[in-house]
Every structure is written in C-alpha cells, then in structure tokens.
Amino acid sequence: MKIKSLIKILLTLTLVFGFSSAWAKNIKWSMAGDSLTLDPHAQNEGPTTQVSRQVYEALVTRALDMQIVPQLATKWKAINPTTWYFFLREDVKFSNGTPMTSEDVVFSILRAKLPTSDFKEYISSISSVKAIDKYTVQIKTAEPNPILLNQLSNIFVMSKAWSNENFSTAPQNWNASQETYASVNAMGTGPFKITLREPNTKTVFKKNSKWWGNVEHNLTSIELLPIANAATRVAALLSGEIDLVTDAPVQDLGRIGSSAGHKVVSTPQMRTIFLGMDQGADELRSGNTGDNPFKKKEVRQALYQAIDINAIKKKVMRGLSEPAGIITFPGVTGYTKDLDKRLAYDPEAAKKLLADAGYPNGFDVELRCPNDRYVNDEAICTAVVGMFGKIGVNVSLNSQTKSKHFKELKNKKGDFYMLGWGVPTLDSHYVFHYLYDTGASWNRVNFSDARVDELIKVMEGEVDLEKRNAAIAEAWKIVKDDISYLPLHHQVISWASANNVNVPIRPNNEPLFRFSSKN
User: In angstroms, what is the C-alpha Rg of the chain?
Assistant: First the structure.
C-alpha cells in the first residue's frame, strides 16, 4: 500500500509539474521603452496603449484587419444624430471575478474626460453619458459625430468599484509625476491580467481565466522586458533570451533574418515622424538671437529645405521609411498623394531664406529628441543636426529617454523637438484636434488659426461626407502652407521573433496576443 501510495504521489507530481512545463507557453517580448503607466487614461502613447490593450477593453475595437468590430458592446444604434445607445455583453467579468455593467462604462467614459486624462480630446464631443439599465448605455454628443466609434475604440473600461476602492477615480496626473494605485496596477476585462509590474524592467501578464471571449491563443503568460540598447535587444533575441522584438533595429534586420531560428516581418506604420518648433515664445530658451526665429515662415521653410530626407531614408533608415509632406499617411480620411509631396531639398535656397529673414549667419538652438521611442530616433536627429549646420544653423542635440522627453515637452520646455504621431482613428480630425487646434494638449508649436479652428469644428459635427472632406482638405492646405511643423517620414515597423512565435503584425504597431501562439 505504501508503494502504491508513493507511485500515486509521483504520478501526480509528474502530471502537475511535467504537464505544466511541457504545455506552458510564455512569450518574452521586448521593445526599447516601457509603458509609461498602467493607468489606461493617463497617457495617449503607443507602447502604453499596447500594454493596456492586453488587459483592458473598449466598447468597440479594431480587428486584425483594422476594421471596427464589437467588443464590450455587442451592438449599437444612433436613435437621432446626437444620441447613441450601446448594448453591452451580459457575460463580462473583470479579472477579479466581478461583473461588468453599464455603471462601469459610464464611470470610465467620464473618467477619460477629466482634466488629467490624455484621452479627453478623443471624446470631447461627448456631452453626456448615462446608464439606461444594467446593460445599456446612452451617449450623447454636442453635435453629430461621424467618427464616434473610431474614438471609442481607444477608451478602455475600468471597474468603478476597483477604482473607488483604490483611490483611482481620476486618471493619474502623469505630467506632475503623480503615482497612483492604477498607475502601477491594472484590472480589466481583457484576455490577460498583470501579475507583476516592475517599471522599465519587467511586466508579467497571465492568461485571464475569467475572460468572456473565445480563446484563440495558446499562451499562459507574456513577459514584457524592455531593453533600451538596440544591440543588447538584438543579442537577447538571437540568444533565445527574448522571443519577440516589436521595434527591431533596421541595421540588424539582415542579420536577424539570416538566422535559421528567427524571422523578420515589416509593414508601413500608421505613424509620421516630424519636428516641431515653438512659434509662440518671444525668445528662444536655447537661442542666441534675443528673439524667436521660428516665428518667421522663411526660417521654418529654410529648415525644411535643409533636410535631405532621401539621404535619411537611405543611410539612416536603410530604405524602411517613406518621405512625408504632411503628418498623416495613406489610408487616413483626408490623405492625398498631392498633399504628401515635400518641398525640394535645396540648401542654397535655405541659406537665402535665412538671410531674407534676417539671419544671414544662422542662429543657435537646441533640438530635443527621444532615444527609445521611434525607429532610429536619435540617429535621425543626429543626421538633421548635421544638415542644419550646413546652412549655418548651429543645433545642439539633447537626446533622452521618452518619459523625460514627453514630460518636459508637455510642461512647455524646449524650442525644437522630435515627435511621432499615429492616427488610431484613421481620420485627419485626430491630427488636427491634438496638433493644430488652438490650445490643444500636444500643440506645443503654439499654432493658432481661427479658420483652422472653425474647420476642426466642421470635422467634428458634419455628417455630409462631401462637406466634411472639403473642410479637411482646406485645413490641410492652410497648415501645409504655414509649415507649422517639419514633416520627416512615415515610419515602417519591423518585428523580429523566434520561428516558433506567431504574433500578427499590424500597421498600428500593436501586438494582439489574444491572436498569438507559440509552438
């Protein structure tokens, strides 16, 4: 009997531990920078949203083909031009087992509209939201909103009770370096839950056994291990320490692709890289002229025409970029090839423009860039610094981690900076609302034009597509002619992984691990 009992114990241990190790599927994922916060409404930033989307869900979402599909809402209808009803799934639970109801949706939308939310511009047209019953939500907009579904796809739903219990009823004030319970913990309805959070070091996601959806992945866990240094990140991938890199360095793609155990996939990304110039300050913070050269269009155009974008594409980006004339890309409502044409690279014309503007000997200025956010961001900035030097503009480079870069930019530090802008709504309104609207949160160039502000209002409320498209086209013409920003290129993204890892690449650079597998 003792021998039989011992055998049973050994068999049990073998089944438990042997089965677990054999069938446990873990993907170790890396990128240059970490999520800035776990609060799903605090920072509208790509890698941050990538992390949030594994844990939190929205009323609607974008499928692998980027089409809007139901998520927490099964259906919706507009009962008049400004009133929408959303009908919720009745089988959804948060990862702690509590049911999700319309009260959580109402709470989350109102939370995302609060001053500390970086998503408040997304849903600024929403005038009211209320629970009709346990599984029906009414949303009213100030005017008809033709892109409401696009916007709601990025407004994640939180538990009202959990937020109240943990003193997180308002979004974290990220700009003021506030830390809250929700900024370092997460609890959503999504396919994964976060069980460990060590900022900038390690975040562990476990399969959420309470998820309402059909499980199409075979993963038990995901580990996000950010590695800032590109060479170290690639070495970790090739050695097997990492399974997936979602920002593979362009200079290493050939080496990774030639590895028998690895693969590389690339796709044009929904993101444009550009430089911004503060045109509102009376005097540059870092300049030597006693005024602000950026106020003059001739200076902005001179800098534009000093940029050899084809050289950047060839030498810095290894061909994996597309020169841009505006801050949006093919597939976005309002984009046209004619708009996307650049001014000619012409350093001699640039020198003349500087002289005509009163700066024949150029001027000094600091350029601020992130070094862990965009593809080859620091290398791009280094290249343009040399190009500006050729026309007499002496630019010093201040390169730092994205968390510092974005925070200082939001706090109105810096004259000249790099930024990248994606368009998750796939509509030009998103670009204008954040970058050109007077007083908008990311309008750090201090652009202001009364007509553009009027046209943004038309984009928000006009349901006649012909009239709306005409407003978008007019707005693009105004800002393009003004040279409010210096567009560089539309980014191309490359993911690299072990051959046995399958994560579908998408143009928004967001992995959806619920559709992923490890063989």
Answer: 25
Are residues 100 and 156 in contact, defined by beta-carbon separation less than 8 angstroms? no
Q: CA separation (Å) from 116 to 163, 175, 176, 180?
A: 15, 8, 10, 12
CA 507, 509, 510, 516 torsion: positive or negative? positive
Residue type, 356: D
Percent of the chain with pLDDT over 70: 96
CATH fold of 29-208 reads Dipeptide-binding Protein; domain 1 (3.90.76)
Which candidate, 165, 208, 147, 168, places its Cα nearest to that of 38?
168
Residues 499-507: what's their mean pLDDT? Answer: 97
Q: What is the pLDDT of residue 114?
A: 98
The distance of Cα 201 from the centroid of its chain, to the nearest Å, equals 20
Q: How many angstroms separate the CA atoms of 450 and 440, rounded?
A: 14
Cα separation, 203 vs 34, in Å, equals 9
Q: Which class for 382: exposed (0-12), middle (13-18), buried (19 or more C-beta within 10 A)?
A: middle
Tokens linked to 428: 């030009």
The DSSP line for 80-106 is ETTEEEEEE-SS-B-TTSPBP-HHHHH
**Tens of pLDDT along 22-76?**
467 999 999 999 999 999 999 999 999 999 999 999 999 999 999 999 999 999 9
What span, in angstroms and rounded, lies between the C-alpha atoms of 505 and 380?
Answer: 24
Contact residues for 516 (Cβ-Cβ < 8 A; gap 6+): 27, 217, 219, 501, 502, 503, 504
**CATH architecture for segment(s) 269-492:** Roll (3.10)
Cβ distance 277 to 483 under 8 Å? no
Residues in the chain: 519
What are the boundaries of each domain within the chain?
29-208, 269-492
| Greatest pairwise CA separation for the chain in angstroms | 100
Mean pLDDT for 307-315 is 98
User: Residue 396, Cβ neighbours under 10 Å: how many?
Assistant: 12
- Closest listed residue to residue 125, CA positions, set 459, 473, 452, 446: 459
Residue 36: which of 268, 370, 511 has the closest Cα?
Answer: 370
pLDDT confidence of 1, banded at 50, 70, 90?
very low
Cβ proximity of 93 and 108 under 8 Å: no
CA quadruple 60, 65, 66, 67: dihedral, nearest 10: -50
Per DSSP, the three-state class of 460 is: helix
Contact by Cβ (8 Å): 270, 427:
no
Name residue 402's beta-bridge partners.
none
Please determine whether the domains at 29-208 and 269-492 fall in the same fold group of CATH: no
